[in-house]
Amino acid sequence: MTFEAMWRDLHPVGRSTSSGGYFRQPWTSAESELRAWFAEAAIARGLELETDAMGNQVAWWRPSGAAGPSVLTGSHLDSVLDGGAFDGPLGVVSALAAIDVMRERGVEPTRPIGVSVFTEEEGSRFGLACLGSRLVTGATTWDSARERQDRDGVHLLDALDAAGLDPSAGLLSLEGVGCFVELHVEQGRDLVDRDVAVGLASQIWPHGRWRFDFTGEANHAGTTRMEDRRDPMLSYAATALAADEQARLTGERATFGRIDVAPNGTNAVPSRVSAWLDARCSSDAALAELVESISRHGDDRAERDGTALSVTAESVSGAVHFDADLTRSLAAIGDWPVIATQAGHDAGILSDAGIPTAMLFVRNPTGVSHSPAELAETADCLAGVEALADVLSELAS
């Protein structure tokens, strides 16, 4: 099955008829359909499929005589809320298509090649990005993960059970994996500006998520004088503006993209506003300084408003520098540019676990990601497949 045919199969799964965006949250019907599709694609190619308690999957190509450290590739199939089509699935489909290309070329790998699908990469349901790969590598413990709840109060164990998974089945083992290469749509405009279809990653900026809980006093929107209010919404709004200003001044990234308000009434001053900050910076020190600055502005504003603020770090990932020797050797294959990325990936988790890791990016002409406007042209996708086939052929030879 060609890349184009596989892409047509995936295109309607989990897609909103109103926005055109994708809702492929982990352990929902859409994501389960995608996992079933991957299993069928693997079996059709004669690959050995492994699935663990979380729904992480690896399809292995083990030609006769293949031995030694394995080469792992792949990405994820879940999406953010109302996300784009390419973030994640492009890497999975391209990996399967790359194996097809290698077979057409008559390549006989001397090392096993695995195509992986890691679950809950986006953290859109249970709040921790790269949950599947974090558990597999030991970066997150099962005891801590099992206590997580989604926005509707569903526990992780119940979500797994509803998806037909067995939490006691154990997790995938990455023992024997010699390197990992993830292909991904670029989530920016670097390749567009360079006018090239494919690039390599040098590093991932440090990033994280922090919950800002502003508390005040609920009251009547009409009868409460402005000077008598203890309104946490004002404290939040001022903090969001301060975050924007601080990020612009330093050239970093700060985003409040999600809030939860109580009691959430049109005619009531709220008693609580919880807001989630996504912050990303060029260095670990810059990230710590930015978050501290935003928190300080929040505290100062809360004191003025008669409200209170508590800040909780929900997930923080340090800077990831991909294996320089591996990246250098791969760059020589296609003369691809090496660029940094501000987005987090499973590749970063595997790199932190000590597995030599590299990333390939495919040009996104819109420069837009985590949105229905996310795009990659078919010609560039096919160039990415060829590039990945070249890389896997080199690494598995």
From TrEMBL:
Co-factor: note: Binds 2 Zn(2+) ions per subunit.
Protein residues bound to Zn(2+) 2: D87, E122, H370
Cofactor(s) essential for the protein: Zn(2+)
Residues that coordinate or bind allantoate: R209, N267, R280
Residues that bind Zn(2+) 1: H76, D87, H184
A Pfam family: Peptidase_M20
Record key words, sorted: Hydrolase, Metal-binding, Zinc
Transmembrane segments: none
GO molecular function, one term: metal ion binding
NCBIfam families per UniProt: hydantase, PRK09290.1-4
PANTHER family attached to this UniProt entry: ALLANTOATE AMIDOHYDROLASE (PTHR32494:SF5), ALLANTOATE DEIMINASE-RELATED (PTHR32494)
Family per similarity comment: Belongs to the peptidase M20 family.
Protein name: Allantoate amidohydrolase
